[in-house]
Amino acid sequence: MTLVGLVGEGITTSLTPPMHRQEAAHLGLDYEYRVLDIAVTGQGIDDLPQILDEIAAAGFDAMNVTHPFKQRIIAHLDELTEDAAELGAVNLVLYRDGRAIGHNTDWTGFRYAIGEGLASVDGERVLQIGAGGAGAATCFALLKSGVAELAVADLFPASADKLVERMREIFPQAILTSIPLDDLPLALMSTDGIVHATPTGMLHNPGLPFELDRLNPEAWVAEVVYLPLATQLVQKARARGHRVLDGGVMAVGQAIDSIRIITGHEPDGSRMRRHFLSIVGDQAGTSTTS
Question: What are the residue numbers of the active site?
């Protein structure tokens, strides 16, 4: 049996466990997926060493990792993949031969979304709103996919500055800038695409992150929020005729890559997307980001 889990806070309604369980069943795998939610167990952030000891004692083969442990867990791992080290964040730990190896499928999930919905962004000029954890992953994926120019804006300008500086070290060939939110109207007019990577649009945080009136009519729009799947941004962008990536494509991509890394089997992306859409309907009363 392959024993997998998800550790984090406030994750009882996460869509990751049902996606893994359903696809593993289709693949004919003996696969158990458990949720370790510190909001339920009463443990805190500082209890991570104890939590990891419990995970090791239970014999887990892999563990998906989410807030608030994506950065904190790194100090407790034996090895990081190159991309996880560059991002400074881990969302999957693989336990092999007594070693704990940190991976990051957040960025590969967005790379999958790009491939599914846009085919290519090579050489394009892109604008991103949001410089937090999700924004770091999407930024990394965009640059890995060949984006030539990337501008990042955030409610907290220092966060955008920090992300841009970090990405410049990894991608010196790209043109990276941080811009104030006040400059968005002008930037929207000339961008080839825009990525939204903030919590705006979630069920309990509704609204538009920016007005689309000045957005280049030919630009594509990518959303990170996946519950609700049809955020106000997704709805309005589609109504204006833009190519749109909803946040669910990234979520499915993350799960595909995790299952492949954990099991060595190749998941069926189309089947997982259909299953994702079915469980989104079941959990329409909740909201989260990738």
Answer: 70
